[in-house]
Amino acid sequence: MLFVHELFHSIQGEGPFSGRPAVFLRLSGCVTPYCSFCDTKEALEKGKEVSEEKILEEILSYKTALVVITGGEPFLQWETGLQALESRLMDEGLEVQYESSGRAGIPENVLGKIVLSPKPGQWPPPEILKRAFALKPLMEKNPEPVLKAIQATGFPPEKVWLMALGASREEQLQHMPALWEICRKYGYHFCPRLHILVHDRKKGV
Ligand code: SF4
Predict the structure, then answer these.
(1) Closest CA to 84 of 58, 41, 119, 52
(2) Which residues participate in S-adenosyl-L-methionine binding (predicted)?
(3) Ligand 1 geometric centre to CA of 155 (Å)
(4) How do residues 182-202 score in pLDDT, each as one tens digit?
């Protein structure tokens, strides 16, 4: 059984899978203390308990090749259902991508691709960072701490997707020119948040 906040079909708006139609499975719960700036606070509550079988059935109904599993912090539920679900998804030939902050660690036997979004001041240790397929940090108003943290990881620039700050379309557009220059200078991917640009503050899209 898994605690689920929402499941919906959309387009991946961020990171290396950006632009691809995908089913999003947002699992409930995160590591405490919660981040004060959390933009998915509604997913921190316990959520609805759903069987792996039922989740799989709904995911397959969308006939989409990519499944994005996010949260909250999805790996908190690895032992209690997520590992079993991943295995079923892969048996069906689906591609699995995780969105994680790394705050709950990364289980040894994860097979899906992990896109790691470290939170300000909470960058995971090297043993967690090395498990990431890509890094997707959020650019802050003062870029220096983020840039230093990225460089300290030793990740090659082509594995870094630097995201524009802002939870609304207006804020995104406002911060993009600075992000553009930073990405050009350091060789990182310029990572707009497409769902915000298209739908503004609307959730579940
Ligand atoms: S790690 Fe992410 S989901 Fe969890 S509290 Fe922090 S911002 Fe929210």
Answers:
(1) 52
(2) 37-39, 72, 117-119
(3) 23
(4) 999 999 999 999 999 999 998
